[in-house]
DNA sequence: ATGAAAGCGCTAACAC
DNA sequence: GTGTTAGCGCTTTCAT
């Protein structure tokens, strides 16, 4: 740690610039925030003075006056099994870099459940004048969106509102389509007995993804009886589900999973039996995590950059004022893409 | 996105609290910031008034006055191969949650090289009054620390200053000790030909880790000739290095790697030959990434939480004033720990 | 199109 | 130990 007190030059203020340009402080502010009110030649003079003095507006002062911090809050998720968290990490990176381009910054917070997260909103909103919130992992009965809406705080969610009608802006990935594509891919490769390992019924995301498998199979009149499992998300449960499926009298030749965690569990079971994923039993996961890439497992990838971009579009549209009636869609469903590797 | 304008109650200010408690604004401020100056009974009265009104101080106002934002900047790293980034992610999470406990928040920025990162510091410092910076991945000729020191900005690094004498605060993990432990572990298991796959000479971190392997082998008079490789960090290069080693006339029975990426590359080569990591050839990586955990690969783990904690200790010590002469060490080398799994 | 006055909410400096 | 005064740097009226 280095202490304070290096040789800084005195920080130029609006005043300095105004004097130098021979205008009032106010005019400088207008050049910055409402240039259309200022005559072009004045603008030029002021711009020159800004350049010469190296003036930079001070955020805290602006925030105090306008109640806008130019800060967007995002949650830093705890590394769980470390597998699925990878998607949120790259989403966060995309969000940060794209926010910078729009003159916003991302402020982090942590929380262990919805209640803690709401407490964080409360503090962020009233203490720091946070401009907006980006939520991930929406789920049924999501208290967070309700709270934010009630408090009039702008927000977007990465994930649809599940089980409720909600009018807030959201961006999501079409999980059903992703799993549908994965299943179609397997069908094209000649598979007829394709299993699905998903999460227990009731999770919006999980049910949605499962439906993609079901409809792809239905289209081809494939028999799916006994070919689905519902388990919590982990390697161990995935492996057990895989074992069950492979032990059945009519074992599947391909297994699609709702997540990479489960898929890796299945993968582990396959290799433990001396079989080769892809050659003997095909496996496809969901999220295209680094681990999947490393071991060569096919997986459905979410377009993280596009999600971040779209989220910010929605946000800045609301924050910086949508010109006109703001007819733009406030809900967006993006298509994922299947990354085919050796395992399928 | 939900718009602004929900039914907020009017925000209570210091004034409100002061009136209610029958004191001046200043006294309320003192209760909050310098309670030792206020008589206990006054404190109690003010605290009660704060409670009743639900008053919360406004950061922007305080920042404007004190030039302290209570914000700490950290870089959001781009997901590279997705393997090694995992350590920084959990470090960032630990940093965020621990900073919250000390009434600091973490603000993100992105950068693609040192120059961009310095530009970010500049903006963050003068526009947002950032209080401090946390840097990771220190390297030789690190322009960032020089810049920060010159500008008098408080900072800590996760990583030693390599190749220079520097007096700034840092926290690092003893990589040499980690690799030494890993090698010792292999020796205890009976291995006599232990190879090391590292990075090209010149990277401080890489050379340091390699030295741990060298000294453990030297202690036991093990022959290490032809048993080390220096390659860039990736799966492919790791795999190639592994192949070379295994093809040699006197192939090693165990391979220690400077990173999990390289170790996974070696792992891939081993399994591709129909061999089993651990049973046939032992492999140990570095960083204990999620992928390592998933596939059951031994790896050296960095104590991320402790690093975050220590970094903040150093920072807050400098920011909030170290009482007394601040005799506490400003440099800290933490021991990593070997996580033994099936691969060794 | 530009300028003057006022004030956002807080704390440092000083008086009492 | 507590109150008073002033001002951080900016933008929002409103007057010109």
UniProtKB/TrEMBL annotation, chains A, B:
The keyword Transport does not apply. The keyword Transcription regulation applies. Residues 12-66 form the HTH lacI-type domain. Gene3D superfamilies: 3.40.50.2300, lambda repressor-like DNA-binding domains (1.10.260.40). Keywords: DNA-binding, Transcription, Transcription regulation. Residues 1-24 are annotated as: Disordered. It comes from the Bacteria. Signal peptide: none annotated. InterPro entries: HTH_LacI (IPR000843), LacI/GalR-like_sensor (IPR046335), Lambda_DNA-bd_dom_sf (IPR010982), Peripla_BP_I (IPR028082). GO terms for molecular function: DNA-binding transcription factor activity; transcription cis-regulatory region binding. Pfam families: LacI, Peripla_BP_3. PANTHER family: HTH-TYPE TRANSCRIPTIONAL REGULATOR GALS, LACI-RELATED TRANSCRIPTIONAL REPRESSOR. This is LacI family transcriptional regulator.
């Amino acid at each position: 740690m280095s202490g304070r007190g290096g040789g800084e030059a005195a920080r130029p203020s609006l005043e300095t610039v105004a004097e130098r340009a021979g205008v009032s402080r106010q005019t400088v502010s207008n050049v910055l925030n409402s240039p259309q009110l200022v005559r072009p030649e004045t603008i030029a003079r002021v711009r020159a003075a800004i350049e010469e003095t190296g003036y930079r507006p001070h955020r805290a002062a602006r925030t105090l006056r306008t109640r806008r911090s130019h800060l967007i809050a995002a949650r830093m998720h705890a590394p769980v099994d470390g597998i699925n968290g990878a998607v949120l990490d790259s989403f966060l990176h995309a969000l940060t870099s794209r926010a910078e381009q729009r003159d916003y910054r991302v402020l982090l917070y942590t929380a262990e459940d919805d209640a803690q997260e709401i407490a964080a909103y409360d503090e962020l909103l009233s203490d720091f004048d946070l401009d907006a919130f980006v939520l991930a992992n929406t789920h049924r009965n999501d208290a967070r969106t309700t709270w934010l809406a009630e408090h009039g705080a702008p927000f977007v969610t990465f994930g649809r509102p599940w089980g409720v009608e909600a009018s807030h802006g959201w961006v999501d990935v079409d999980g059903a389509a992703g799993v549908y594509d994965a299943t179609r891919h397997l069908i094209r490769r000649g598979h007829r007995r394709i299993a699905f390992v998903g999460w227990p019924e009731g999770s919006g995301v999980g049910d949605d993804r499962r439906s993609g498998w079901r409809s792809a199979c239905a289209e081809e009149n494939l028999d799916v009886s006994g070919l689905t499992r519902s388990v919590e998300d982990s390697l161990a449960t995935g492996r057990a589900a895989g074992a069950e499926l492979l032990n059945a009298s009519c074992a599947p030749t391909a297994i699609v999973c709702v997540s990479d965690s489960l898929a890796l569990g299945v993968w582990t079971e396959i290799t433990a039996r001396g079989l080769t994923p892809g050659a003997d039993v095909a496996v496809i996961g969901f999220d295209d995590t680094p681990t999947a890439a490393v071991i060569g497992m096919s997986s459905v990838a979410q377009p993280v950059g596009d999600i971040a971009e779209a989220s910010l579009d929605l946000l800045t549209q609301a924050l910086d004022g949508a010109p006109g009636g703001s007819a733009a869609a406030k809900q967006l469903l993006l298509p994922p893409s299947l990354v085919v590797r050796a395992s399928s």
